[in-house]
UniProtKB/TrEMBL annotation:
This is G-protein coupled receptors family 1 profile domain-containing protein. The chain crosses the membrane at residues 27-49, 61-81, 101-122, 143-163, 192-218, 268-288, 311-331. It comes from Caenorhabditis briggsae. It is found in: Membrane. Residues 40-328 form the G-protein coupled receptors family 1 profile domain. InterPro entries: GPCR_Rhodpsn, GPCR_Rhodpsn_7TM, Neuropeptide-GPCR.
């Protein structure tokens, strides 16, 4: 289509920017739709499958993580539908209310999910290294999750206050987006607030997750030392006094448990690393934009590049959601394999415990 000769170069760049913004919005719209249609039913399906593993130490954490991801993705999904003026959204809530509500739900669920992973891994660390103390302490997953949920809600109460609807052009007809209002606290204070928010929501929990997992993988379990109790195979016991405080376990069972633990930890590390890599570009770009304001710069060439980059990193960010039900299914397979192995070992040999 030929350009209007009466248009100035700035007007031409502005029109090109809005066209590119519309095309990237179209791409993100269909990407969110596809990811949501696949992932949301998969999360519900995994909720149903994991119900029979309620006795697992990780059951409540896994369910809460899936619930957090469900709320997060469902909020994004409903948000893109409302942007397209779907019939059941039209006229119900003003755009500014949708911005505040969706920002609060997204931030709260993100904060909760990231720290729920940390809490689950810390609990596993305690059970691996200090099983007797953890058992005596009676650590309850439900209580930890409730405290974490309350803290997540309280920590994100700033979102409805600062987040508002901002127009791309002179009015809303040019398009809008949700962002923090710099008029409330000022741009300088807002920058550090957003930096602290990203650090607490994303960077710190994932660093802690990787550190805790590596510690379980490479450190020696103090409970296998002589100060606690000794776990040895039946093949190694010769003329032991029956009154000795021994727990007799088949050697294959010990090797199987050690191998299964390492496989599970490696899988957790892999998931944490993948999630980190999928979140990192989006969080990093948003932080950079807070300090350099690429989204609102007068240079439309820079704004066009930012819109492209923002679309790419957001698509990468969305790819993390399908990995959650896939990971849960892998854990379910581990639970089934472990249960099958225990049953077969019980049939092959008799285990005695002396106190």
């Amino acid at each position: 289509m030929p350009h209007d000769p009466n248009q100035t170069e700035e007007e031409l760049l502005k029109n090109q920017f809005f066209k590119e913004w519309q095309s990237t919005s179209e791409l993100l719209y269909y990407t969110v739709i596809c990811v949501s249609v696949v992932t949301l039913p998969a999360l519900i399906f995994m909720f149903i499958l994991l119900r029979k593993y309620k006795k697992s130490n990780y059951y409540h954490f896994l369910c809460s993580i899936m619930a957090g991801n469900f709320v997060l993705l469902a909020t994004i999904f409903s948000n893109v539908l409302s942007d397209r003026n779907v019939a059941f959204f039209t006229g119900i809530l003003p755009g500014v209310v949708v911005c505040k509500l969706s920002a609060f739900l997204v931030n709260t669920s993100s904060f909760f999910v990231h720290w729920a992973w940390v809490s689950m891994y810390v609990q596993r660390f305690l059970h691996v290294f200090f099983p007797l103390r953890a058992h005596r302490a009676g650590v309850k997953s439900k209580d930890i999750i409730l405290v974490l949920f309350a803290f997540s809600v309280i920590s994100q109460l700033w979102s409805p206050i600062l987040i508002t609807e901002i127009s791309l052009g002179a009015d809303e007809s040019s398009g809008t987006y949700c962002a923090e209002d710099p008029k409330i606290f000022g741009e300088s204070t807002l920058k550090y607030l957003i930096f602290f928010e990203c650090f607490m929501t994303f960077f710190l929990p994932f660093v802690l997750t990787v550190v805790v997992d590596f510690s379980v993988l490479i450190m020696r379990n103090p409970c296998t030392q002589k100060k606690a109790f000794t776990v040895i195979s039946a093949d190694e016991i010769v003329h032991q006094d029956e009154k000795s405080p021994l727990k007799i376990v088949h050697k294959s069972k010990i090797m199987f448990d050690m191998r299964r633990r390492k496989e599970t930890i490696r899988r957790c590390l892999l998931l944490a690393t993948v999630t980190l890599l999928l979140n990192l570009p989006n969080y990093s770009l948003q932080l950079i934009d807070e300090f350099y304001h690429f989204r609102e710069t007068p240079d439309f060439n820079v704004r066009r590049k930012f819109v492209r980059a923002d679309a790419i990193v957001y698509i990468i960010y969305l790819l993390q959601f399908p990995t959650v039900p896939l990971y849960m299914y892998c854990l379910k397979t581990d639970f089934d394999r472990s249960k099958s192995k225990r049953n077969s070992s019980a049939r092959r040999s008799t285990t005695h415990s002396f106190v």
